[in-house]
Amino acid sequence: MTTSESAGVVFDGSALGEWTDEERFSVTAERIAQYAAATNDPVPAHLSGEIAPPVFAVVPVFTSMAPAALSVAPVELLMKLVHGEQDFLFHRPIRAGDELVVRAKPIGYVGRPNGSTVVIYAETRDAAGDLVNEQWMTAFFRKVDAGPGVGELAPGHRITDEDRAGEPAATVTAHIDDDQTFRYSPASGDPMPIHLDDEIARMAGLPGIINHGLCTMAFTSWAALTELAGGDTARLRRLAVRFAKPVLPGQDITTTFWPTESGDPGVRAYAFETEAAGQIAITDGRVEIN
User: 23-26 and 99-112 as β-strands: parallel, antiparallel, unpaired?
Assistant: First the structure.
C-alpha cells in the first residue's frame, strides 16, 4: 500500500488505477432537452433532444466520480471536496437513444499546503464498446496536504499571457438566471446543497448559493459552438477548464476566446477565460474544434 500522510490525513495510493463498477445509462431526448434548457443552451439540436450538449457528458459518469476520488482520499474529507478542473475529449456526440456504459478510476494525487488534488479518469462507451468520450476530473480537497505526488496528472491546458495578448476570436456575454441552480440540479443529477440552500452555502464560507461549476462550463460550451463551430456539436473535439471563483445566480458572465497553438494541423484551438463581477471565474480554458 502506498500512502501519504500530513497532519493526520492519509491518502491511499493503492486504489490508483482501480476502476469503479460499470454503470449503464440510457439517453433520452427528454433528458437531453431538460439539460439544454437548464443551461440556457440556444443550439436547436440540443433543445430538441436530438444531440446532447457537450457538458451533458458528465451526467452519465457523475455518480462514479466521487467514489473514485474517495477511494484515495479519506471519506471524512467529502465536505472539503470541490471541483477543481474538468477536461473532456470527445470522440462523438451523445445522441438520444444511446445506451452508454461508464466507469472511472483515480489515476494520481498530489498535495500542497493549501489543498490536495485527486485526478479521476472516466470513459464512456456505447453499446458496441466504442469510446464516446473520455474525461479527466480534478477533485480539490481544500486545506489538506496529501504530501508528495503519486501517479499521473491530468493533461495540461494552461492559458498563457501570450494567448491573452492576441486579438479575441469571440466574446460572449450571458446571464445566470436567479433560478439557474434549481433547474440545473435535477437536470444534471447534482443535489449538492451549496447550490440549493442559502444557509448551508453560507455555513460553507460562501456568499450564498453558487452556480454549479459545470453549469457555468456548459454556458462556455454553447458559446464556443455558436461562435466558433457554426453550432455543430460534432466538430467539438476537446473542452477543458479550471474553476477559479464561484459564479452567483443573477450575475452576467463574459467568456473571451483567443486563438492558440493546436499542435494538430486539422484542429483549431482556442484558449478562453470567463469573467463574472470583475473576477475570473473560469480560467485555463481550452477548446479544440475539428
Answer: antiparallel
And the C-alpha cell for 113?
A: 499546503
Instruction: Quick: pLDDT tens for 166-189.
Output: 999 999 999 999 999 999 999 999
pLDDT one-digit tens code per residue, 5-19 = 445 578 989 999 999
Distances (CA, A) of 171 to 174, 220, 239, 274: 10, 10, 17, 10
| Cα(272)–Cα(290) distance, integer angstroms | 17
Cα–Cα nearest to 83, from 241, 196, 272: 241
Q: What is the DSSP letter of 277?
A: T
Q: Left (φ > 0), alpha (ψ -120 to 50) or beta: where does 250 sit?
A: left
Is the separation of the CB atoms in 251 and 178 below 8 Å? no
What residues form DSSP beta bridges with 112? 115
pTM: 0.94
- Are 244 and 274 in contact, with CB atoms under 8 Å apart? no
Instruction: Give the pLDDT band (50/70/90) at residue 215.
Output: very high
The count of other CB atoms within 10 Å of the CB of residue 55 is 24
